[in-house]
Design goal:
The complex is a heterodimer of chains A (220) and B (114). Chain A has 220 residues and is of the alpha/beta class. Chain A has 8 helices and 8 strands. Chain B has 114 residues and is of the alpha+beta class. The chains are: A alpha/beta (220), B alpha+beta (114). Chains A and B meet through strand 1, helix 1, helix 6 and helix 7 of A and helix 1, strand 5 and strand 6 of B. Strand 1 (2-8) of chain A pairs antiparallel with strand 6 of chain B.
């Protein structure tokens, strides 16, 4: 005997994501879900962003890692509020985990919450957390074929950072065609906003910080 | 390896549905869009591991992958997107939009008869 069901399998996660979305909307918080491979520079982008916008935007961070609070310590050193989530093996954050973390951050009234997801180019993009937008990071050292090989994240993100552009000066040794990346990403996603940056030197951060500042003010 | 989380959610969804039935569930059909990035082998393995000792043990999973669809802005064709090429299947234009990816759905459960 066959029974038709037609139910979403991730509906429990989606319910939490919806609650989180309401939480952000009521408090007019802009929430970004930052996703990339390990080592692309998510935390470095965050610490520089917090420093550059220190007097303009109140940013809080949720750190997702399998183990350790190394990244949370780096955020803490900037003076920003941070909550660490250790997934202990899981390769992505869930909306339920984020829901616990945002309760803790709410008291200090942040204008922006940035969720640094577990380093992984595939899994995190399949789980909605209630964010306003996904922000992908691709670093020059990872190679220029990643958007074609891992299209899901690039298709779903509203922002893409191409990080470590200071390495482009190595020329042939680094083998990264930034124009190819841009055109391939735009094919997947016409509306994506691409920032080419170096979290190390600060290059390209003006454009990104202006974008974040404007989008924060728009919803307040 | 988000297949483990998916398997846990799938087990919960199937368990809720099968609670209404007296006979044993033997097969479940699920569907998903390509951006869900589901690896069949991993999902089957994860599901079999976590369903041991439950009523859902031994369920055979049938997984249907729905292709990504694109809509060409130049010629209006709706087509299946090949990510290695990324242009319209009708007119070769690169000016197209990705349509919404299909979510993960539990489509159907089959129960033992008799």
């Amino acid at each position: 005997m066959k029974v038709k069901v037609g139910k979403k399998i991730l509906s429990a996660n989606e319910q939490y994501a919806e609650q989180n979305r309401k939480f952000f909307a009521e408090r007019r918080i802009l929430c970004l879900n930052m996703i990339s491979s390990p080592g692309s520079g998510k935390t470095s982008i965050l610490t520089r962003t917090i420093d550059e916008l220190k007097d303009k935007v109140k940013i809080a961070v949720i750190e997702g890692d399998i183990q350790t609070d190394y990244d949370a310590q780096r955020i803490k050193a900037t003076g920003a509020d941070v909550v660490q989530i250790n997934t202990e093996g899981a390769c992505h954050l869930s909306a339920a985990q984020v829901s616990g973390a945002i309760e803790k951050l709410a008291a200090s009234k942040p204008e922006v919450i940035i969720i640094e997801n577990v380093g992984n180019l595939v899994c995190p993009s399949a789980f909605e957390l209630g964010e306003s937008a996904k922000a992908a990071v691709l670093s020059v050292a990872e190679g220029d074929d990643k958007p074609a090989k891992y299209p899901a994240l690039f298709a779903k993100s509203k922002v893409l950072f191409i990080n470590k552009i200071d390495l482009l000066s190595l020329g042939a040794a680094i083998d990264f065609d930034i124009e190819k990346v841009r055109s391939e990403v735009y094919r997947l996603n016409k509306k994506i906003k691409i920032f080419s940056v170096s979290a190390k030197t600060g290059k390209g951060f003006d454009g990104w910080c202006d974008w974040l500042f404007e989008h924060t003010k728009q919803i307040r | 390896m988000h297949e483990m989380s998916v398997a846990q959610n799938l087990l919960a969804t199937i368990s809720a549905e099968t609670a209404k039935q007296k006979s044993k569930p033997i097969r479940a059909k699920i569907s998903c869009g390509i951006l869900n990035a589901i690896n069949d082998e991993l999902l089957v393995e994860a599901f079999s591991a976590i369903s041991k000792g439950t009523r859902c043990e031994g369920i055979k999973l049938e997984i249907e992958h729905k292709p990504m669809r694109g809509l060409c802005k130049k010629c209006g064709l709706e087509f299946e997107v090949d990510f290695s090429k990324c242009y319209c299947a009708g007119c070769d234009s690169t000016d197209f939009e990705l349509l919404e990816d299909a979510p993960l759905i539990l489509e159907e459960i089959e129960f033992e008869t008799g």
